[in-house]
């Protein structure tokens, strides 16, 4: 029992570090280790605790996760963390971008793209943590990225967004990252 707890704690620490690294260096990729067979639940498990709210638009045992983390559920316009199994512009529209007095009260969005047929969009990324400009393909439609760019256009307001594939590879896009869609 103790070995499993230690292993889970080590997994949480490693996954948290991947979150930090991919957000500090937008456009780079890190690998999340699964917890309970799910990469998205692994992220929720390492980030959630009783003082933060969360919203799930993904399959999984949310009741078990809430019992383990103590994180209360909330609608997307009130959630600190939003976990999705697809990129929905309605969820992005509702997500909090913070206020000028409290920009830290914005949401962090995690999108898992399991569908191999999901449309990818070529982008040029620039900003803090990116040497020059970086070309990248992101697993979402251009309309989603246009809306994300709009939500992040008034720094320090905005939200951080992570894209996760079915193999646990994750890319972070910080609110400070400029996203230019390549036609």
From TrEMBL:
Can the keyword Lyase be found in this entry's annotation? yes
Please name the GO terms that the record assigns under molecular function: lyase activity
Pfam families, alphabetized = PhnH (PF05845)
Task: State the name under which the record lists this protein.
Answer: Phosphonate C-P lyase system protein PhnH
Keyword field: Lyase
Task: Extract the InterPro entries matched here.
Answer: PhnH-like_sp, Phosphonate_metab_PhnH
In the record, biological process GO terms are: organic phosphonate metabolic process
Question: Keyword Acetylation: yes or no?
Answer: no
